[in-house]
Amino acid sequence: MKQFMKTLFVISLVVVGLFIAVPAMANTMLTGEVGSANDIIADDGNVYTIAETEKGDELSAMVGETVNVTGTVQEVDGEKVITIDSFTVVNK
């Protein structure tokens, strides 16, 4: 019986962890300016490091441009890192 309770407790922790982690990895849409440090400074003041992917590298080259971005955000070592799915340049 004790083993069953321990197993049930561990399974419960895993399920709760999934409910916390999955929303954090959901697609995010934001608008901001591409910075010179391989990042995006969002209109709300948050700074997102651009993940090194083909789309991310393309976006990183657009320093100073205002963009709408869709991507997946993860927190890595206390920094928000966004993996770019798509982006468009905002005409001013």
Structure in words:
By secondary structure, this protein is an alpha+beta fold. The protein has a domain at 26-89: NigD-like N-terminal OB domain (OB fold (Dihydrolipoamide Acetyltransferase, E2P)), CATH 2.40.50.500. Helix content is 33%, strand content 41%. The protein contains two helices and five strands, in the order H-E-E-E-H-E-E. It has helices at 2-24, 54-60; strands at residues 27-34, 39-42, 47-50, 66-76, 79-89. Strands 1-2-3-5-4 form a five-stranded mixed beta barrel. A hairpin with a 4-residue loop joins strand 1 (27-34) and strand 2. The longest helix has 23 residues, at 2-24. The chain is elongated and about 65 Å long. The relative contact order is 0.19. The mean pLDDT is 84.
Summarize the structure.
This protein has 92 residues and is of the alpha+beta class.
Query: Which overall shape is indicated by the principal axes computed on the Cα atoms?
Result: elongated
CATH topology label of one domain: OB fold (Dihydrolipoamide Acetyltransferase, E2P)
Number of strands: 5
Q: Count of helical segments?
A: 2
